[in-house]
Amino acid sequence: MKFIILFLSCSVLWAQTTSRVDAHAPIGIMGDHVHQKGEWMFSYRLMSMEMENLLQGTRTVKSSDLFNSTAFMMAPKDMQMWMHMIGAMYAYSDKLTVMLMLPYIKNEMTIARKMQNDEIQRKSSGLGDVSVSALYSLLDQESKKLVVSLGLFLPTGTIDEEVAGTRLGYPMQLGSGSYALKPSLTYTFLGKGYSLGSQVSLKYFVDENDEKYTRGNEYNLDVWGSYQLIKYFSSSLRLSYFANESIDKNDSQINSTTSPANRAEYQHAEALSLFLGANFLGQKFLKDHRFAFEIGKPIYQDRPGTQMKTNLIYTFGWQKAF
User: Fold this and answer.
1) How far, in Å, CA of 280 to CA of 31, rounded?
2) What is the pTM of this model?
3) What is the DSSP string of 154-218?
4) Which residues of the chain fall short of a pLDDT of 50?
5) Distance between CA atoms of 151 and 127, rounded to whole angstroms?
6) Helix-strand-coil split of the chain, %, nearest 5
7) N or C: which terminus of the chain has fewer CB atoms within 10 Å of its end residue's CB?
8) What are the phi and psi torsion angles at 309 (to 5°)?
9) What is the pLDDT of residues 156-214, one digit of tens each?
10) Are the C-beta atoms of 244 and 301 separated by less than 8 Å?
């Protein structure tokens, strides 16, 4: 699967000029269209991921199991991650659109401690890695859309979050500390009352950060179908595959012996998730406003190192073009 995504290394997003409610991809898909020359679009997304318990491979374990079988003195018990994403798009031509995405991230983790037999809370929040992308329409027919994109991620998110002088583990950091490129490819077919789509992407970290490590590359493959229930409302079903490689080196300020969240070699995974979504096209005083929701859950997870188990993922979104 990873090699297929790598082979299709340029992102595809589809040009959309129609007012059909199902013309947009599910809200969990980023940058799925281009615009007509001179057109702007602004968007807001609230994304959240809930995690609980631990996975060793595909097997669920609790912190007590980890303490009995390893030398770790702490273990993440549950975690909530939020991301507020503000986006802006501008079309330089009917074929070329540029996109800016500004993420604000908030993390909260509950950690179990073996010796104290208690739990502690850890939090981090702030700006994540900002991205700038160029989207180009390769195919724009009445029923078939194809767009290629290339995104550049800037190392604006911090990688030195700490509490009381102790550096937090990798999942609690807000950025990668590295520049990254993200090519992707999206194809959409618009049928009578329904639409089908797919997107393939790769996020490649190009350099080592200030702490002398590099995040593992990320691979995504998404396929979805949408059905127009009424003129201004559609539902969608999306299947999403995600995989990432492990961090190549260690942050010397993170104590890798205390918790699995601090182990660089554990930070890789593979997951297949199923999402149910809805798109709403505003009417009357909400004309040209789009509102969307998507909720999903992994149906398969494999984490070769001991990591948090993802339970639920959801996204709310708003979009307005003018």
Assistant:
1) 18
2) 0.91
3) ---S-S--EETTEEPPGGG-S--SS-EEEEEEEEEEE-SSEEEEEEEEEEEE-S--TTS--PPPE
4) 1-18
5) 18
6) 10, 60, 35
7) C
8) -95, 125
9) 999 999 999 999 999 999 999 999 999 999 999 999 999 999 999 999 999 999 999 99
10) no
